[in-house]
Amino acid sequence: RMSAGAASLVGAASPVPSSGEHELTAWVRILAGGDVALLVSQAEIGQGISTTLPALLAEELGADWRRVRLLTAPYRLAYRNPKQNWMFTGNSESIQSFHDLMRQMGAAAREMLVAAACARWHADPRDCRAADSAVWHRPTGRKLGFAQLAADAARLPIPASPTLRPVAERTLIGKPLPRVDVPA
Fold it and tell me: What is the pTM of this model?
């Protein structure tokens, strides 16, 4: 069992989201209860990738790390190594190969959630931010949880060039996190 405040490894992902789950990108699923399922395509062989790769996704997404659930990815071309173009784990290259892709996929999902919130509020995306698994409207203080926005966001196109968060906004990367794989 995971300690409080930590993501948890919960099993294998089905190739298609279950009822109540909404896939925003191949790597990000929003669950009905508000948890965020992040898919991990690389095997953990002791270097901490099952913590680091999801942390990159969660950071860009604005997910509450305590509400992140990790799922092992099924076979799908989206999960191949972006540098080698095939599915494998090895050569100590998971972080360097997937780093940029994880950030982009997290940022893309964040932009989709923000767009869904802005459509409801008739708001400007520049007035909104994603944090703690919710989208917040700065001028009014309104917020909508990811689960409330997931169905609408999942219908949007995945942004090709999402804006990445600046280093100053990081809350996970570069900070100590409990290893997700250790309790199992």
Answer: 0.89
Q: Are strands 128-131 and 134-137 parallel, antiparallel or unpaired?
A: antiparallel
The per-residue DSSP string of the chain comes to -PPTT--EEEEEPPSSPPTT-EEEETTEEE-TTS-EEEEE-SPPSSSSHHHHHHHHHHHHHT--GGGEEEEE--S-GGGS-TTTSS----TT-HHHHHHHHHHHHHHHHHHHHHHHHHHHHT--GGGEEEETTEEEETTT--EEEHHHHHHHHHTSPPPSSPPPPPGGG-SSTTS----SSS--
d(CA 109, CA 132): 14
Measured from the Cβ of residue 141, the count of other Cβ atoms closer than 10 Å reads 7
Question: What is the side-by-side order of every strand in the sheet holding 36-40?
Answer: 8-12, 68-72, 36-40, 28-30, 22-25
Q: Round to the nearest angstrom and report the end-to-end CA distance of the chain.
A: 7
How many other CB atoms are there within 10 angstroms of residue 46's CB atom?
Answer: 7
pLDDT digits (tens, 9 = 90+) for 128-180: 999 999 999 999 999 999 999 999 999 999 999 999 999 898 889 888 888 88
- Amino acid 165 reads R
